[in-house]
Structures are given as C-alpha cells and as structure tokens.
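SEQUENCE AND FOLD
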Amino acid sequence: MNKKKVLVTGGSRGIGKQIAQKLSKDGFEVFAPSRQELDLSSASSVDLFLNNFKEPLTVLVNNAGINPLGEIVNLADQDVENVMRINFLSPMKLIKGLAPLMIKQNYGRIVNISSIWSIVSKPKRGLYGAAKAGLNALSRALAVELAPHNILVNSVAPGFVDTELTRKNLSAEEIKKITANIPLGRLADTNEIANLVSFLCSENNTYITGQTIVIDGGYTCL
C-alpha cells in the first residue's frame, strides 16, 4: 500500500511509546492522540474523536489501559466502570468506528494489547484480568467477522516489562523476586513487545489472526 497509517492509543510512554516509534521507523504515519484529544474514560470523547477522524486508516493498536489493583470486596463501582471503559469498551468502540475505513480498503491490521493476567492471575487482579480476557475474546470474534475483508485481528499479552512505571511501582527487591520466577531471568524490554506488534501490523503477517500471543519470557509456563 502506498501510504500506511496507524492509530496507537497510549502512545506517550512505556510500551505504547515504543510501539509508536517502531511503527514510525517501519514507514507508518503514526497517530498517537493525547488524552486531551482522545479520553478513553469518556464515551463522548471517543465518539467525538471518531466523528473527526477521516483518515484512510491501515492499522489500529489498542494499547492504552489502566491496572488498579483491588480485592473484589473493596472495588468501588467507579473503579469497575473506569477499568472496563478504558480497557475494553473504548477499544471496542474504536474498532467499531474505524473498521469501516479498513473494510473500504479491503485491508487492515488490528492489535489489542492484552496481558498475561488475562490468562493467569494473582490476588487483586480480577477486574483487570476480566477486562483483558474480554479483549482477547473480542479479538477472536472479530478475526472471524472481519476475515472476509482481509483484516487480521490479534491480541498481544505481555508479561512483566521493564518500563518507567514498573520501576516506579516496584522496588529493586520486588523486581529481583519477580525475575527469579521468569525462566529467561529478566523483565521484557519494551523493544521486544514493539517488535512483535510490528510484525503483526505488517504486510508480512498474512495468516496470523484471532490469536492471543503471550510474550512473557516463559513466566506462564511455570
């Protein structure tokens, strides 16, 4: 295709920033809207963004998400609403609004950034895991639905990734304990996640669709 265009949500930091940079190097014209331009916690903001977005989009990467930890008995209704809205409902709304642009071109790639917590779990991750598991299920269903239009849909489920937020939230001792339980013995680099997403978004990916691809250094194998 002459001009490849991609929308990446949450592209200002961490994994999303690395994905945006990698896809830019791959030759994509990258749209990475700020929260002021696209607030995923607000249905009306997503609607406004979609009404104004008329670009002939090639690729959508739903990366933005939040991960507040909490036991089920302590979850406030607003916590539930925010997590489900940002991690599942808004990504689904974006796909609904942008898929017609791909259908018109008879070409598209959609990658939803999920998490290993959609597959395995720990205490306080029920809400986050449920939202990401829903994203995986949506990827499978849409892979079937959109296949006739040459649109491939996949989820990528990272494990522990070495980001600024990870280093902020976890002490050096906590990270040491985590890496001891990862067969490869280290956190993932954001480049490694971005490289996988890059392939799934590329024209080299011609047959992978409907999959949840885990990239965790072997953590979920144990």
Notes: The radius of gyration is 17 Å.
